[in-house]
Inverse folding.
């Protein structure tokens, strides 16, 4: 059972307290200037976007099958059994494959640093392990960001849509996208308008499967290909040896 | 010896100067200061060119070694040493290039201890490290021969079969895996270039470019070092290149056909222009050229066709790694001049090292002969030259 966040944009009032709580939790600078930045960055893991009177939050989706964790050559990204996708900076070599691999473009980079780290929401793993909510869920004054068991939150989201169908686009974004995510989104507008990738585009297949199909064949490929190459080598050189031996024989009989 | 300032030496010095300045910026001000990479474009020229193209351009090593040792194509013996030298230099320099691109290059060795077997990048990293080691041993006899060290040459000769098989195995794995790297981003990479066939296409193009590069560097060395050009060898390579290009073209066509893309690739669009450029340079022009016997038999024709092929596949890999992401990201990426200058510096160092190696090591047949002669008069018969199996030179 993994923990998850349910974000319901219809309840969100755009107060940005989640942003500031997140910054505090992760010891990031936060002031009016940062609050006004409408993009995520290495110093802003989550952002509340506003369009007219409607709001939308963006943060790491904490995929059930994260592309970043599968892509990382040194396993610096990994999915914990509690749900959060976390990052071990001391392993990271800085190849940035996680950033390229992520369908939600969540990992950001400290481009100006001489010892740069990948930065993204890690779903407050210390708090989650201690049985507490994430900082953003705890501070949310309206309950727009809610923390809980993923299964419970899915049920709750389905109930909300059922009870108030006119209020919602009838889908839970993150339920099945890329094999399911631990951030679930309810909304009355299409989340795609706020920069989320379209469900149809990313599909329901976990991203690691696309590379897994090839990678899983390698353990079989290595011995087979080695035998084939070794075999060809042996045959072509055996031919040479035989030819040499025959030539010698001929020479011998001639003498 | 007096140092003469020739045109190319001035060019070299300028490139090195700018490159060193960029190196300073890279390691004292960071990746953000030296490049136009960003959170939207985390991979830029250094991955697109230095990694993807660099490894492809060094593919001649395994192609020629494979032809000579696996299939006993004796005629190609004379180009094997330069091909192995190019490959060895290529891989070493590519690793140097990687040190610029990695955010924390001092942890590159983590690759060896924190292994993630699901990661394509891990596989590429391990294979490249291992293959560079193999290339080192394939190249080593050149140096040993120069100093007439017979015993270690005998050892290498004993394990040469293992080196050959291992080298080709590792090359197959990582040349194709460079394509697999992009399989994890079906929603980001433009459908012109995203295909489940990427690993096959990358492996196929590595072979075509390996052959083209061997033609190119043989001709180029002949010009630069005033060497006799072995036309029959080039003709042989040209024929193989034509076949490789046809196979690649067929693979590309099949891929577009099965994915129902044929209608889209002929429609003009930003991506289509780049695709057309790529297809023209990599397939249409060189295949058309090489189809004429006259071209296949002329050193200049072969030289031009091979340059065209190389440029075509470089365009292909830059399209996969850069052009193909521009629509997804929503803006263009143009490398900063400092990014170009680091890449140029690495290439320049490669050329310089190649020149030095040719000057001081028995890389080309005549040279080997001369060394053999010299050593014979000095130290008696030399077994060393037999090592790479070219006793018949």
């Amino acid at each position: 059972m993994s923990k998850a966040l349910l974000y319901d944009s219809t309840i969100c009032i755009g107060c940005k307290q989640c942003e500031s709580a997140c910054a505090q939790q992760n010891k990031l600078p936060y002031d009016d200037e940062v609050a006004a930045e409408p993009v995520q960055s290495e110093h802003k893991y989550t952002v509340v976007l506003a369009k007219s009177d409607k709001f939308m939050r963006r943060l790491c989706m904490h995929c059930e099958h994260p592309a970043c964790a599968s892509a990382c050559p040194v396993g610096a990204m990994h999915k914990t059994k509690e749900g959060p996708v976390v990052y071990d900076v001391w392993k990271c070599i800085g190849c940035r494959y996680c950033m390229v691999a992520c369908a939600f473009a969540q990992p950001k980079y400290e481009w100006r640093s001489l010892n740069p780290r990948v930065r993204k929401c890690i779903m407050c793993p210390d708090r989650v392990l201690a049985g507490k909510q994430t900082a953003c869920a705890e501070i949310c004054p309206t309950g727009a960001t809610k923390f809980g068991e993923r299964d419970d939150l899915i049920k709750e989201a389905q109930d909300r849509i059922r009870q108030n169908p006119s209020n919602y686009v009838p889908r839970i974004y993150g339920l099945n996208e890329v094999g399911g995510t631990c951030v679930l989104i309810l909304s009355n507008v299409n989340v795609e308008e706020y920069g989320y990738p379209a469900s149809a585009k990313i599909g329901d297949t976990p991203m690691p499967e696309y590379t897994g199909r090839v990678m899983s064949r390698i353990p079989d490929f290595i011995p087979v290909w080695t035998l084939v190459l070794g075999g060809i080598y042996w045959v072509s050189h055996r031919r040479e040896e035989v030819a040499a031996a025959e030539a010698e024989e001929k020479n011998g009989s001639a003498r | 010896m007096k140092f003469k300032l020739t045109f190319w030496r001035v060019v070299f010095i300028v490139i090195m100067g700018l490159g060193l300045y960029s190196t300073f910026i890279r390691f004292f001000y960071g990746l953000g200061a030296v490049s136009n990479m960003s959170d939207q474009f985390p991979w830029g020229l250094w991955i697109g060119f230095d990694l993807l193209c660099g490894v492809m351009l060094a593919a001649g090593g395994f192609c020629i070694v494979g032809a000579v040792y696996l299939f006993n194509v004796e005629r190609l013996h004379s180009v094997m040493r330069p091909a192995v030298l190019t490959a060895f230099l290529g891989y070493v320099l590519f690793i140097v290039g990687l040190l610029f691109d990695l955010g924390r290059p001092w942890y590159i060795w983590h690759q060896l201890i924190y292994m993630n077997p699901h990661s394509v990048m891990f596989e590429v990293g391990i294979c490249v490290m291992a293959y560079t080691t193999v290339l080192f041993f394939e190249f080593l006899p050149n140096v040993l021969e120069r100093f007439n060290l017979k015993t270690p040459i005998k050892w290498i000769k004993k394990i040469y079969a293992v080196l050959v098989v291992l080298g080709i195995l590792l090359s197959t794995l990582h040349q194709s895996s460079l394509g697999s790297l992009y399989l994890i981003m079906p929603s980001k990479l433009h459908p012109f270039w995203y295909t489940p066939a990427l690993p096959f296409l990358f492996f196929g193009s590595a072979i075509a470019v390996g052959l083209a590069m061997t033609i190119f560097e043989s001709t180029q060395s002949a010009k630069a070092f005033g060497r006799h050009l072995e036309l029959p060898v080039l003709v042989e390579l040209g024929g193989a290149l034509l076949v490789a290009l046809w196979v690649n073209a067929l693979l590309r066509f099949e891929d577009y056909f099965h994915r129902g893309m044929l209608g889209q690739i002929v429609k003009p669009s930003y991506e289509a222009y780049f695709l057309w450029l790529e297809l023209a340079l990599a397939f249409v022009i060189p295949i058309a050229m090489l189809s004429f016997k006259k071209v296949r038999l002329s050193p200049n024709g072969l030289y031009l066709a091979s340059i065209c092929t190389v440029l075509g596949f470089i365009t292909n890999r830059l399209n996969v790694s850069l052009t193909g992401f521009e629509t997804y990201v929503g803006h263009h990426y143009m490398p900063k001049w400092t990014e170009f200058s680091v890449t140029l510096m690495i290439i320049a160092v490669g050329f310089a090292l190649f020149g030095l190696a040719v000057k001081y090591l028995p890389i080309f047949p005549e040279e080997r002969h001369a060394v053999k002669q010299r050593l014979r008069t000095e130290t008696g018969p030399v077994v060393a030259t037999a090592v790479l199996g070219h006793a018949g030179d």
User: Anything to note?
Assistant: Chain A has a mean pLDDT of 93. Chain A touches chain B through 56 residues (CB under 8 Å). Chain A has two domains: 3-206, 217-254. Residues 218-254 of chain A form the longest helix (37 residues).
